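User: Reviewer 2 asked us to show a designed sequence for the structure in our supplementary figure. I'm pasting the structure tokens here. Could you produce the per-position amino acids so we can include them in the response letter?
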């Protein structure tokens, strides 16, 4: 935060405010408060846009995880079915069918 406010600027970008929040756990409200004390504004709309992008990335990642788990289940089911077919084929061979 000190690095951002040390520069002579009048605005903390939404991306900067979001980086403080997402990377360091620095609450937006505290960023606004400290910035206000130094006569600096915070781009809240930009912050909200960055938050929306992060939520979308998280949602997309969870969908990928779900699909990976489902694929694992399908592979396991396929392995079981293959084993059952092989067992049945073995029994047929043994019975001289």
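Assistant: Here is a per-position design you can include in the supplement:
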């Amino acid at each position: 935060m000190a690095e951002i406010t040390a520069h002579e600027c009048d605005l903390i970008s939404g991306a900067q405010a979001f980086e403080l929040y997402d990377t360091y756990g620095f609450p937006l409200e505290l960023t606004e408060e400290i910035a206000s004390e130094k006569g600096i504004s915070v781009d809240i709309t930009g912050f909200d846009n960055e938050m929306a992008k992060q939520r979308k990335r998280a949602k997309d990642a969870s969908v990928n995880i779900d699909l990976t788990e489902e694929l694992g289940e399908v592979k396991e089911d396929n392995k079981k079915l293959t084993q059952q077919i092989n067992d049945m084929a073995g029994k047929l061979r043994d019975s001289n069918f």
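For the response letter, you might also mention the following. The chain has a mean pLDDT of 83. The radius of gyration is 28 Å.
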